Amino acid sequence: MVNKRIKIALGCWILLFSILFCSTDGFSQNNKNFLWKVTSGRNTVSILGSLHFMKKEAYPLDRKIEEVFDASDVVVVEANLNDIARIDVQKLIDTAFYTGDETLESHVSAETYSLVKKQYEKLGIPLWLVSRQKPWFLALTITSFELAKLGFDPNYGIEMHFTSKASGKKRIEELESFEYQINLLSGFSDREQEIFLLETLKDVQAYEAEAEADALLRAWQTGDIKRLESIVMKNVSDDERLSLVYEKLMYQRNRNMTSKIEEYLKKRETYFVIVGAGHLVGDRGILELLKSKGYTIEQL
To answer: Which of 9, 13, 36, 85 is the most exposed place for a label (fewest CB within 10 A)?
Structure first.
């Protein structure tokens, strides 16, 4: 049960930051998949933008996506959700929860605490059950509840689908790791964690309407980047206080993942890279970074 909760929470955080905080100028083509072919002089790498929580009804996926996967030698994900046993559970607990007399209330503003309280009253969950959670982990918990209410399940996430299919048949590699992601979030200052939590509270409001959540799924299924942007970006603030958080959560990671993809483009094996949809779009997204380096980009 503990491992299941961890898997849901970690899958949730990947989803949250994979589709948040991006603009989607360029690469907009309807009736396509969130699937791109990146070509160098030596190799071609396929990159699939992912939603990490999906509905069972989203399957089967488009045949083109499955064919590209079948033709690949190596599957690459941000973090392998099927390898949960590698996580140091005690370390996660130590970084996710307050100890002693510390509580959430003593680490966030009265306004933020009031918003959290309202959120949990709406869910019918006593606040004392989550008062020991640090803001970064509480953000994951809130989003998990909201997405689960709408039928979105990490067990049907794109990474879970393809890593399960690849198990024992294809090599699976990671662009990052769970440890990296946990250290990233837990390493935020109290203020950065509070900003993260506030943005999460704002974001989950967009998922409360089932029609809008389904519209997000349809945008992904049809490769409609502009539509996806209009859904996930409408609650993103231009607050300058978020700039450092954005840099750590998105742009720095985009640069690091781009460097790894460049390494794959120099090899001879066929790589199928799965990364959160939000990392692929925008002027500072992976696709634009690869394009600026001279690689050919084609949406499939």
So the answer is: 85
Rounded to two decimals, what is the model's pTM?
0.85
Helix/strand number for the chain, H first, E second: 13, 6
| Residue-wise DSSP of 225-292 | HHHHHHHHSTT----GGGHHHHIIIIIHHHHHHHHHHHHHHTSSS-EEEEEEGGGGSSTTSHHHHHHH
Listed by start position, the domains of the chain span 2-299
pLDDT digits over 25-45, tens only?
334 444 689 999 999 988 999
Average pLDDT, the chain: 84
Express each pLDDT in 117-159 by its tens digit. 988 888 788 888 889 999 999 998 888 888 888 888 989 999 9
Element containing residue 299 per DSSP (H, E): strand 296-299
Spatial distance between the Cα atoms of 13 and 210, rounded to a whole number of angstroms: 20
